[in-house]
UniProtKB/TrEMBL annotation, chain A:
Organism annotation: Halorientalis regularis
Span of domain ABC transporter substrate-binding protein PnrA-like: 41-325
Protein's recorded name: Nucleoside-binding protein
Keywords: Signal
InterPro entries cross-referenced by the UniProt entry: ABC-Purine-Binding (IPR052910), PnrA-like (IPR003760), TAT_signal (IPR006311)
Pfam families (alphabetical): Bmp
GO CC terms in record: plasma membrane
CDD domains (alphabetical): PBP1_BMP-like (cd19963)
UniProtKB/TrEMBL annotation, chain B:
Membrane topology of this protein: Multi-pass membrane protein
The protein's name: Nucleoside ABC transporter membrane protein
Matches recorded under Pfam families: BPD_transp_2
Keyword set, alphabetical order: Cell membrane, Membrane, Transmembrane, Transmembrane helix
PANTHER family: ABC TRANSPORTER, PERMEASE PROTEIN, GUANOSINE ABC TRANSPORTER PERMEASE PROTEIN NUPP
Localization terms from the record: Cell membrane
Amino acid sequence: MSRKKLTRRNAIRSAGVLGALGLAGCSQLSGGGGGDGDQLQAAFVYQTNLGDVGWTRAHENGRLAVDDSFDWITTEYSDGVPGNEVRSVFEQYANSGYDIVYGCTTEYQDPMLQVAEEYPDVTFEHCNGFETAENMGRYMGKFYQGWYLCGVAAGHLTESDTLGMVVPIPIPQIIRQINAFTVGARAVNEDATTKVRFLNGWADPSGARQAVNALADEGADAIGSNMVTPAALQAATEREAYNFGVNTSMAEQAGEYYATAQINNWEPFYKQSAKDVRNGEWTADSLWGGLETGIVDIDDFGPKVPDDVVSDVETKRSEIENGERSVWTGTKFEGWSDAELFSDVGSYVEGVEGSVPSS
Amino acid sequence: MLVDIEIDAREQTPSWIAYGTPLFAIAAALAVSVVALVAIGVNPIAAYVEMFLRPFGTVATISNVLVRATPLILVGLGVYLPMKAGLWNIGAEGQLLAGAIVGTWIAINVTLPQLLVIPVILLGSAIAGGLWAFIPAWLRAKWGISEIITTLLFTFIAADIQLYLVRGPMQGGSGGFPQTELLPAAAEFPAIPGTRAHVGLLVALLIVVLVYVSMNRTRFGFRVNFVGSNADAAEQAGMSRYRVYLLTLVAGGALAGLAGISEIAGNQSRLHASFAPGYGYTAVPIALLGRNGVFRMLLAALFFALLFVGGNRVTVAMEVPSAIIDIVQALVILFLITAEFFQRYRLSVSIGRRDDGRSIRGSEVTTDD
């Protein structure tokens, strides 16, 4: 993988900088990523090791898209950097002449604020936090909208009217998604209810598998998973339950009952932010973008999902994009501001069984 | 043809072996790691320079190593001390979490001047860590129940309590993220002037000296060493195994608790759901490598910090996935632990027929001993 990256990067460099002269070999010799000319350098820092699917992979897809699209940018990533070690990594990038540093997890917020203060000339972007600074923006997607669309499909597909959801921990970000999934299902199937299983972790393949089996035992036949592992989806397919993944496409791993996945598509955001920095137009925004920004998406539907279901989901999608439909209309969260929705969602909507743990 | 391998315990480790094997082991591990680095097209020399030399480049980079080392020294001591008494504190992670939770709670809820509040925080964390180790310690001392299992299981309890607290009663900061408020400025450990290392490091070094003195110059240390090398003989000699087990494990827990709060008040400024990526487990190889003396344990903790900080440097400076760095780190640790074996045992390999004089000599020596 890394070798492919090198080849591609050299190809970009030779095409963009020296291509006409055919001096690709020379560019390789002089390589090493020094901040030459108006070449922009962007660093992406990930908390978990880069795998084939999941949150970190979604960011990496965004990075690759930026790298492929613009010949004026060089990108680099570091993965597997825990929050308590990230400060030195940010500093090293800032010291090495990088223009933008993207910190792709919540826990990077405090160290990034500190480093941003030390390096006022470097642009920092933090994913999924609540703090900004003059040279540090924040960005996140309204992924609950994607879960709403998954819910619409689940509402159509379920025969038992029982949905399941396997999720990591009870925090607002996750509660929002459970709620949206349920609201989406009940928009097309008012009898649908959702059973929830918390796993207290983000990637727990065997726990996710057990939870899915428990949900299937209780009659759930359309199951969403907010876990970074595709194991939950595989288990659901084994039980002939339609399943919904998260972050990236899990179609390859999930098997024939794969319905779709809520996709984090960071490409439009990373492109815009890099362009803004290059043009000197960047400001420290707080972006919480929905379907209309392209950041929130859903995957292509699996083979077993009927066409009329697909077309109903597409209709509702364009209604949300046009502002004709709001996820929270008719729920207790109707009329909530984005700030409240971001921070304060601590309980379930009607249709979710039980109550949020420890609330 | 026969290959005879004899393993004898060394009566004494020659000093060239004591000091040479760790260096040789590291070199051997790096030599093996070359395979992984070359396979992904990375120049291994450049990678090793980045990993082991560049961290010493500036005060800021040295600070990074010291900041990383601080909790490792403290939690390393937390495993080292019980190990001297022959106990395995595998669950130092849980005691570290207990210290972090209680220390953070005090820091957020108790308002005192900085000079007062920091000692109170340290004391509270030490007590919390010590209490967390107390039940396994008592079960071991009184009933002989394996502390390996109980301390480990107590870690899971602590981790779940921590997760509950940071998203429930102690949750703070906006966004509803699983973390506490930022610590107030008075509770933050002040930095050592000119660096980013904080007073936690001074506390850690002070405790290293205290442990050295008490292990080598006091009756208590003598008892711990005696019980650790032969508990039955120590009982016969009238020493209380019960007291030694209880004291070392509880003291180890207290030190692990200090590690927890020093990482938060000195580095991270708030308690996150995933604040301690396994320091308590890293402490086990640290204590193993340093089992022959507390200053060697200190060196081991510093070396691990260098491994972590340097490893991150490599992934930043070169296109190396962190999984490859994990391999290099794991190989270094594996080789070092293996080398420990050769410090304590002599291996004689002889090739030839069994009745060959040489191979018999090995067994003659052992029987004569």
